[in-house]
C-alpha cells in the first residue's frame, strides 16, 4: 500500500485513475481546485482537498500531514486552442505551478512522481507510429509546457534523485460505469459526436482532404480505464530501488499502436446509437496533424501494460452509456 496524492483527481483521467489506485489497495488524497473538475467525480474512498497544486507551502504541509509517498500529477490546463490565445496561463499553471509542486515534494521528501503528459509534445511527426525518442517539436503552448515539465522531471531526477514516469497520452476516450467525461467547453471528437446525437447540435468534421484512406484525420484512441491501469503500473515503477526509474525519468507513450479515422468514429457512434448521425465537412482545424499513432511497445515491455478495450465500439459505447446515465454530466 502506497499513500498517493492525485492532483486533478476530480477530472476525467484523474478520477478514473483514483478509482484504479483505490481498487489496488492504495491510500489516495485528491488535490483539485475544481475549476474544471467535479467534486462528484472523486471516488468516495479518496479524500478531496480543494486547492491549487501550485501553492508550495500548503502543498508541502499536505504532503507531510498525509504521509504522501508518491504524486500522480494529472492537473493541468489542457485546451490547445486556449493555450494559443492565452499562453501565460499555460506557462503559469503547467510550468510554474508544476515546479512549485516539485519543490513542495522535494521539501517534504516525496521522491516519486507520475505525470500526465501528451502526444502534443511531438507536434507534427516525421513518421508514425511515433516512438518516444522522436523529436519533440510541439506546435502550441499546451504541448510546449508539457514538454517543459517533462524536462523539469528529468533534471530533478539528475539533481535530486527524483523517480518519475511521464505518460504521453494519445486520444483518451470512453467511461467506466461510474465516471465519465464532462468538460465545458468540450472540444474533443467523441463527445462532440455524442452531443450531436443528444441535442441535434451540428457536427462538423474538420477536413476530409488529408492524405489518409478516407481523407479524415487518424488518431490513436485509448480507453480511460486502460489509461488508469497504466498509471497504477507507473506508480509501481517509481518505487525505491525499482530499476525502471533508477535513471530518474522514464517516458512512455500511452496509445494502442493503431488508429481510427474521424469518419470511422462517426460510423462507430452510429452503430452504438442505432441510427445515422448527420455531419458536415468543414475546413481543416489549424494544427491538426493527419495521423497520430503511438509506438506502444515501451509501455508494454517496461510497464507490462496491455490495453483491454481497444475497439471504438467499447470506447464510444461506454461514453454513451455514461452520458445516458448522467444527463447533463456531473451535478455540481
Ligand atoms: N474533430 C472534428 N470535429 C470536432 C472535434 C474534433 O472533426 O468537432 C477532429 C479533429 O480535427 C481531429 C480529431 O477529430 O482530427 C480528434 O480531435 P480531438 O480534438 O478529439 O483530439 P486531438 O487529436 O486534437 O487531441
What do these coordinates show?
- 39% of the residues lie in helices and 17% in strands.
- The chain has 332 residues and is α/β, with parallel strands linked by helices.
- The chain has a 7-stranded parallel beta sheet with strand order 3-2-1-4-5-6-11, with helices on both faces. Strands 12-9-14 form a 3-stranded mixed beta sheet. Strands 7-10 form a two-stranded parallel ribbon.
- Strand 5, helix 5 and strand 6 form a beta-alpha-beta unit.
- Helix 1 crosses helix 7, helix 2 crosses helix 4 and helix 4 packs parallel to helix 5.
- The protein starts with a strand and ends in a 7-residue tail after the last helix.
- The model has no long low-confidence stretch (mean pLDDT 97).
- The site of uridine-5'-diphosphate (UDP) has 13 residues, from helix 6 and strand 8.
Structural class: alpha/beta
Helical fraction equals: 25-40%
Q: Averaged pLDDT, please?
A: 97
**Low-confidence residue ranges:** none
Strand content: 15-25%
The secondary-structure element order is: EHEEHEHHEHEEHEEEHEEHEEHH
SS field, number of helical segments: 10
Number of strands: 14
Instruction: From the alpha carbons, calculate the radius of gyration and give it in angstroms.
Output: 19 Å
Amino acid at each position: 500500500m502506497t499513500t498517493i496524492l492525485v492532483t486533478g483527481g476530480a477530472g476525467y483521467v484523474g478520477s478514473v485513475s483514483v478509482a484504479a489506485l483505490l481498487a489496488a489497495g492504495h491510500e489516495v488524497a485528491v488535490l483539485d481546485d475544481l475549476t474544471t473538475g467535479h467534486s462528484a467525480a472523486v471516488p468516495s474512498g479518496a479524500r478531496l482537498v480543494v486547492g491549487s497544486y501550485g501553492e508550495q507551502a500548503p502543498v508541502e504541509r499536505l504532503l507531510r500531514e498525509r504521509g504522501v509517498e508518491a504524486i500522480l500529477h494529472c492537473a493541468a490546463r489542457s485546451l490547445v486552442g486556449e493555450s494559443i490565445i492565452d499562453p501565460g496561463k499555460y506557462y503559469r499553471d503547467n510550468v510554474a505551478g508544476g515546479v512549485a509542486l516539485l519543490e513542495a515534494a522535494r521539501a517534504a521528501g516525496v521522491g516519486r512522481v507520475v505525470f500526465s503528459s501528451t502526444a502534443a509534445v511531438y507536434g507534427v511527426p516525421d513518421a508514425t507510429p511515433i516512438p518516444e525518442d522522436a523529436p519533440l517539436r510541439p506546435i502550441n503552448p499546451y504541448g510546449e509546457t508539457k514538454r517543459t515539465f517533462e524536462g523539469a522531471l528529468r533534471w530533478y531526477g539528475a539533481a535530486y534523485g527524483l523517480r518519475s514516469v511521464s505518460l504521453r497520452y494519445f486520444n483518451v476516450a470512453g467511461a467506466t460505469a461510474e465516471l465519465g467525461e464532462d468538460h465545458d467547453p468540450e472540444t474533443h471528437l467523441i463527445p462532440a459526436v455524442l452531443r450531436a446525437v443528444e441535442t441535434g447540435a451540428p457536427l462538423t468534421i474538420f477536413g476530409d482532404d488529408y492524405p489518409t484512406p478516407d481523407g479524415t484525420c487518424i488518431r490513436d484512441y485509448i480507453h480511460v480505464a486502460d489509461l488508469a491501469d497504466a498509471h497504477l503500473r507507473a506508480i509501481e515503477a517509481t518505487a525505491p530501488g525499482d530499476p525502471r526509474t533508477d535513471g530518474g525519468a522514464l517516458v512512455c507513450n500511452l496509445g494502442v499502436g493503431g488508429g481510427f479515422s474521424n469518419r470511422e468514429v462517426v460510423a462507430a457512434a452510429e452503430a452504438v446509437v442505432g441510427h445515422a448521425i448527420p455531419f458536415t465537412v468543414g475546413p481543416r482545424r489549424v494544427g491538426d496533424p493527419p495521423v497520430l499513432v503511438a509506438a506502444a511497445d515501451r509501455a508494454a515491455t517496461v510497464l507490462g501494460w496491455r490495453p483491454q478495450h481497444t475497439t471504438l465500439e467499447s470506447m464510444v459505447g461506454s461514453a454513451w452509456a455514461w452520458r445516458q446515465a448522467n444527463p447533463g454530466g456531473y451535478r455540481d
